């Protein structure tokens, strides 16, 4: 470790496929960077680790776990931060419950998740679990704005080796359905706080009988912050969903709901629950009272609901009714048609940023219950960002699928710092308890916003800090200057929040003499512009808010390079540190299943490789460590060779997988270090390593392949057994000896 108290580089311990990959890759990374005197430590931010850290009083001394997320949350506010952040599970309630059950089975005395807390103790437990639920990690760590793009090598590789793309036909019946009225988009009111209004904001609910309830108090907000308040009407949502179900049936397409129940962890599970209710309306009309008694909660999805129903006295009768209703409804888009897992089974199974690009890449198709592909009605209730997907559907219907061999690229600069915009809104989101008025009241008593609401409406407040916006514009200017690509702010001047943001960025751009360089377009027009640019083979930069950052950094990579796993994803932390996220996609749960069933892990660590290279270069600059910079550049050379040689993981058992790709990354990294002339010591050290790795390559390949095809035991899913994982993920004793020796 260097002189500073902070660790040199932190590699996060997360969940599922990326965590399994780390068991193989991290020892290699540690060995290599030790040659530059760099130490890589880990911090556990997995869902299991966070549960254990939350209930220390119930664990033995050996079981206790430190609160690594809190510690990292502090570190990212310092200039010393250098964090390689792998994707982690943002747990839905069913996932949280499964993790709790597994930990209990392993002898940890963590409490059950109280679905309907009544006592003070249960309310306390529930409140603690709610801090773990959903997207609870990224907002804490993202103390900076986002710079995501496909590395040039990845883009070049994709052009030469195009991934499969479904064909689009002009008469595809696929479409996007969205509310457009009485939703978050149309009810939004926004203000930018004056000095007098800054301080502690309050949210009041005044019922029609005049009773005032404080929904939230003491929300600290500084001058220049943009405060947005809005709501989605439950009645309007239910009408919309009923209509969408009818339309889907009339169109003869598949019904699919796309939302983000993980990052929007308060609002979207409620909306998801309404969709389950709408789809099974006749069943709810008949059994609602009994469901309430039995604890059926549609917000956790159809899967959890069917489990509870199976245990009810009338279980068989209700199940028969459900089957009958479903037979009469339009067929559902399936998450897994073999296993009967529908779109409405688990709220975290269909996450819009990944699910919509999958439909678009497949030529507008989804899987139906019959296991056949079909056109689908993509139901995206709120209309803030649905136009992006609607426009993309129309563009591909008119122009055919994107030609991967010639397409340019859309890079993204995303406003993300300080829990910006909707993704920071869950502590101030409420399911309205009674008809009335909700007001946001400033520190000086000014009423900032006021909305008349009805019982069951979903009201939320979001905020965006001025310093985050200024930093975001600076980052955009810097990328535009570096690349010269046409750069567009995706902002809609007819929307409350965006209008305030435009007022804020305009003088900044003017002051820097950049007003004419940047365009501002509403999301639908900006989508069309971006698609036109890349169709011509040119490149552009999308400068977006937080939600579109999330959506676009899956959408364009999945279309352009087949996956968002291969993205370079840098978070320039506002206080000077760096965080390097691996890719833009998630933790790919189906990859873990495949590993457990047939000992093949098709997770592609290219995102990790890119993050390692960036982290090392950043370390080199921050600490004047020239060896680190050399190692970073050599890692980039290794990535280019790995892609060129086709050493990325295959999808099927028997093909080289994640582990084999790590061997090749090590080999090519060592070769690149041996070949460089900037640092003779590193060249000598790694000439030996490269020689040893290439000399043993055949033995290592054979050892790696042993046991493929057979089931493996990881000792758990959420809280795996380190020794068992190491045995599976590091099967080559020859490689291990070279790395550990
Ligand atoms: N930064 C973070 O921490 C993020 C976390 N998540 C979390 O991940 C979980 C799953 O989310 P989901 O939306 O299903 O997204 P995933 O990215 O896990 O899955 C979508 C699909 O993307 C492809 N994919 C993603 N990464 C890789 C990779 N490295 N190698 C190969 N293929 C890859 C696979 O598709 P294919 O079949 O086409 O190969 C995969 O099935 C959730 O818990 C979610 O909250 C999600 C996004 C970001
Ligand atoms: O935090 C999460 O739940 C997912 C993050 C994500 O999808 C993204 O940043 O692209
Ligand atoms: Mg995403």
What does the secondary structure layout of this molecule look like, with pairings?
Blueprint: E1 9-13, H1 16-34, E2 40-44, H2 47-54, H3 68-75, E3 82-85, H4 93-105, H5 120-130, H6 138-141, E4 144-149, H7 152-160, E5 175-177, E6 189-192, E7 199-207, E8 212-221, E9 226-232, H8 234-251, E10 254-257, H9 267-279, H10 281-294, H11 302-310, H12 315-328, E11 334-336, E12 341-342, H13 352-361, E13 365-367, E14 373-379, H14 386-399, E15 410-414, E16 429-431, E17 436-441, E18 447-453, E19 458-464, H15 466-483, E20 487-490, H16 496-511, E21 518-521, H17 523-535, E22 540-544, H18 546-561, E23 568-573, E24 578-582, H19 589-598, H20 606-623, H21 626-644, H22 658-675, H23 680-695, H24 697-705, H25 722-729, H26 733-740
Parallel strand pairs: 1-2, 1-3, 3-24, 5-14, 10-14, 15-22, 20-21, 20-22
Antiparallel strand pairs: 4-15, 4-23, 6-9, 7-8, 7-17, 9-19, 11-12, 13-14, 16-19, 17-18, 23-24
Helix pairs in contact: 1-22, 1-25, 8-9, 10-12, 13-18, 14-17, 15-16, 20-21, 21-22, 22-23
The structure holds NADPH dihydro-nicotinamide-adenine-dinucleotide phosphate, 2-oxoglutaric acid and magnesium ion.
């Amino acid at each position: 470790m260097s002189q500073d108290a902070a660790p040199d580089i932190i590699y996060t311990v997360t969940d599922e496929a990326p965590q399994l990959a780390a068991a193989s890759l991290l020892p290699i990374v540690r060995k290599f960077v030790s040659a530059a005197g760099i130490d890589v430590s880990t911090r556990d931010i997995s869902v299991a680790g966070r549960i254990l850290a939350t209930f220390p009083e119930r664990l033995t001394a050996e079981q206790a776990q430190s609160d690594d997320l809190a510690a990292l949350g502090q570190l990212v506010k310092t200039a010393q931060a250098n964090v390689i952040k792998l994707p982690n599970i943002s747990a839905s309630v069913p996932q949280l419950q499964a993790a709790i059950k597994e930990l209990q089975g392993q002898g940890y005395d963590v409490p059950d998740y109280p679905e309907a807390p009544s006592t003070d103790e249960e309310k306390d437990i529930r409140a603690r679990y709610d801090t773990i639920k959903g997207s609870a990690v990224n907002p804490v760590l993202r103390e900076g704005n986002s710079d995501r793009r496909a590395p040039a090598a990845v883009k070049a590789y994709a052009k030469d080796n195009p991934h499969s793309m479904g064909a689009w036909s002009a008469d595809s019946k696929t479409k996007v359905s969205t509310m457009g009225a009485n939703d978050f988009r149309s009810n939004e009111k926004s203000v930018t706080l004056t000095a007098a209004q800054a301080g502690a904001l309050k949210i009041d609910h005044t019922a029609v009988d005049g009773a005032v309830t404080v929904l939230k108090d003491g929300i600290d907000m500084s001058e220049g912050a943009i405060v947005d308040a809005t709501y989605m009407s439950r009645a309007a949502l239910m009408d919309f969903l009923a209509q969408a179900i009818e339309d889907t049936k009339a169109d003869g397409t598949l019904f699919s709901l796309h939302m983000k129940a993980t990052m929007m962890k308060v609002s979207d599970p409620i909306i998801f629950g309404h969709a389950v209710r709408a789809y099974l309306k006749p069943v709810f009309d008949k059994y609602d009272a009994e469901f309430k008694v039995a604890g059926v909660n549609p917000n956790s999805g159809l899967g959890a609901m069917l489990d509870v129903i199976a245990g009810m006295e009338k279980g068989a009768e209700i199940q028969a009714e459900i089957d009958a209703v479903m037979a009469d409804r339009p067929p559902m888009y399936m998450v897994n048609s073999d296993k009967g897992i529908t779109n409405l089974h688990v709220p975290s199974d269909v996450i819009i940023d990944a699910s919509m690009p999958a439909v678009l890449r497949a030529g507008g198709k989804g899987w139906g219950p019959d296991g056949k592909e079909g056109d689908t009605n993509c139901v995206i209730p709120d209309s803030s960002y649905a136009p992006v997907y609607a426009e993309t559907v129309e563009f591909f219907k008119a122009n055919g699928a994107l030609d991967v061999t010639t397409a340019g690229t859309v890079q993204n600069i995303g406003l993300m710092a300080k829990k910006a915009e909707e993704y920071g809104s869950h502590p101030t989101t409420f399911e309205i308890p009674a008809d009335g008025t909700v007001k946001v009241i400033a520190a000086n008593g000014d009423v900032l916003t006021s909305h008349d609401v009805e019982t069951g409406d979903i009201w939320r407040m979001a905020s965006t800090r001025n310093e985050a916006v200024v930093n975001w514009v600076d980052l955009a200017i810097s990328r535009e200057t570096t690349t010269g690509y046409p750069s567009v702010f995706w902002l809609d001047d007819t929307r409350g929040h965006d209008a305030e943001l435009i007022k804020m960025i305009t003088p900044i751009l003017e002051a820097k003499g950049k007003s004419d360089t940047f365009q501002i377009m509403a999301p639908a027009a900006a989508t069309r512009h971006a698609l036109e640019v890349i169709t011509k083979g040119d490149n552009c930069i999308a400068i977006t808010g937080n939600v579109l950052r999330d959506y676009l950094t899956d959408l364009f990579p999945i279309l352009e390079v087949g996956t968002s796993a291969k993205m370079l994803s840098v978070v320039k932390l506002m206080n000077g540190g760096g965080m390097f996220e691996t890719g833009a996609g998630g933790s790919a749960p189906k990859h873990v299943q495949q590993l457990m069933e047939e000992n093949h892990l098709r997770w592609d660590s290219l995102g990790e490789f890119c993050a390692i290279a960036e982290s090392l270069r950043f370390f080199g600059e921050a600490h004047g460590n020239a060896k680190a910079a050399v190692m970073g550049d050599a890692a980039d050379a290794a990535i280019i060779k790995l892609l060129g040689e086709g050493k990325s993981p295959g999808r099927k058992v028997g093909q080289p997988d994640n582990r084999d790709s790590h061997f090749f990354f090590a080999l090519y990294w060592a070769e690149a270090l041996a070949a460089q002339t900037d640092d003779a010591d590193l060249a000598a050290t790694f000439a030996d390593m490269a020689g040893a790795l290439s000399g043993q390559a055949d033995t290592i390949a054979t050892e790696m392949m042993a046991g493929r095809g057979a089931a493996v035991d990881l000792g758990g899913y959420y809280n795996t057994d380190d020794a068992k994982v190491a045995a599976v993920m590091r099967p080559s004793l020859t490689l291990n000896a070279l790395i550990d020796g």
